Amino acid sequence: MKNTLLIASFLAIAVTLGCKPSGEKPVAQSTETTAQQLEKAQTATKEAAQEIKDYTFGQKTEFVMSMRAQLADLDKGLDELSVKIEKSSEAVQAEAKPKLAVLREQAEKLKKQLQEASDATLSTWSVIKADTEKAYASLKDGLAQSRQAVSDKIAP
Description:
The chain is mainly alpha-helical. It has helices spanning 2-18, 34-51, 60-86, 90-118, 125-154. The longest helix has 30 residues, at 125-154. The chain starts with a helix and ends with a helix.
């Protein structure tokens, strides 16, 4: 399945890159070579495949390690958002700090769920994994929305 997805992605990219309207510059004048474009596409495809990977019970340790790394990235994002909030006006702080506190609580809850995932049994794995993925997606979306809201209010 994963190989089929990768092959289909590569073919779609190859067709897209190979089809240029007659009004465009020749490939030689392009600022980015086809090899560079293909490398970027491969990297993006690998990242997407990693994000949607369906971990089995046998891959439990890999799942927990991957989620912990992603959670660490979200924690950094929360810290960066906290700095932005502290540098903003009192009105923005009053609105954003409670939302940031909720996001931090979600991050702590996700850490506990990751511990549960590492302790999961074969019979509990599917439910715990799904709950953990849902909590991660919720935290990630909440962080993105909060970043956008703070940026909108700070921007002149």
